[in-house]
């Protein structure tokens, strides 16, 4: 509970501020107030960082990516074996509840202060910062924590009250997976204390409200908060509300960093990014990271990933990639464009995993290979993941029986373009929009008939469509790492009859199975794959064995456990912890 101290700073603010609230605050006074508010908000972000690595470790060991080494202790082995994990510190949910407790305490104090100091709002409006923005930003940390509890444990104890002791959560109700997702959506759409979770501003605005203009460092700070659209897009996927999932994913992509088009970070980059892909977990990428947990070694902040994965002293080397996982990268069904070899050149050997000089295999994605003297990060949402969420939503819409054949084909083709080589050939440089009648034109107008929102238009060379730098040229999830196209036959027709080669059901399944594969290739080791496959499995009960075998990777005992839905979750007494 070390992070609770940051919240108590805020409590001190609320009892020490002047009782004279009739005078408007000037900026000099605002700095004092704002720094205390910011300290509390940063306390919420810090507790997220404290627990950010946990899902990565649990998911990779319970999925098909990692296995324990001889150095691993009982706790690591028990996770891999799907053993009873009660009392296992690596599986303890307490860290997520600390995020929730911090947020509940923080927003209660902010709400109390704003009611006692109503004239302070006049000053805040001058600079575009309101108490509501602080509350809304904090709520999203809570939403993330509850969504993680649902994904890992399949249930959670829900409470909105400020609590001083962890053990106090035992008196609140335990809710199942679907109920927790509903509560998360309620927090986003309704919120707490009359404030919803959808209000957002630049992070630098919390610190320097009167400063305008862009700054590289300020842009970096923006990644310390969750954006409303990312959380909503994922939550709506769990509700199978693919319409709203797609709208939120497209909105986030189109916002492009919220800097008037100058950033446009939410896009898979050109091949120039491919050589840096292996560093995506621990290194900040301006045009890739949407939300990240931050660690400053100068402040003695760290995470456990390098210690678990590195075989170099003083690290522990507790885990290594499985042979099954490495084989998938080494023998993909589609060759790399750059060498025509059936391997994932940038994301496989040397990317996700590597063989060291001593012959040991390491999870390269978790290992920086250099002494950490500056900030390291763990991405919680990044561009490719958001694109996969959008593709999954489009696939869900295509599978809807009420969808017309024309729109089903448009949804599938659009998803394949985003997955493969990018939107370049679908753009009309004369009109400055997607080509009339193209799949993108149809999909965008399906959601927004007037095209007022210009969904995804910024993917073509930025919002003004003239940027020539490589980071503005959309290449697709696979295209930017030089991987060949997949799914080219899904919409094919018979040469003689002109009829589709596959039924609508077969078309949708072929697309979704490609997306399931791509979650593995792109997001392995990032705490995403197992959760995404469980979500997709709910949409394909008849294909349950496919998802089970994909996760079990030949382990018969694990297949048996995963045959029951509850087997995908960790059974842990959620009232335990400290």
**Amount of beta strand:** 5-15%
> What is the number of beta strands?
10
Order of helices and strands: HHEHHHHEEHHHHHEHEHEEEHHEEHHHHH
Distance between the termini: 8 Å
Question: Your description of this structure?
Answer:
With 578 residues, the protein is mainly α. The chain is built from 20 helices and 10 strands. The chain has a two-stranded antiparallel ribbon. A two-stranded antiparallel ribbon has the order 2-3. The longest helix is centred in the first third of the chain and has 36 residues, at 27-62. It is globular, with a radius of gyration of 24 Å.
Core attributes:
single chain, 578 residues, mainly alpha, Serine Threonine Protein Phosphatase 5, Tetratricopeptide repeat, two-stranded antiparallel sheet, 20 helices, globular
Summarize the SSE layout with pairings.
Blueprint: H1 4-16, H2 27-62, E1 66-68, H3 74-81, H4 94-116, H5 120-127, H6 131-153, E2 155-157, E3 174-176, H7 177-189, H8 203-207, H9 216-222, H10 228-238, H11 242-255, E4 289-295, H12 305-309, E5 319-321, H13 323-330, E6 354-355, E7 361-362, E8 376-382, H14 383-399, H15 405-419, E9 427-428, E10 433-434, H16 439-447, H17 504-523, H18 529-537, H19 544-552, H20 556-562
Antiparallel strand pairs: 1-5, 2-3, 4-8, 6-7, 9-10
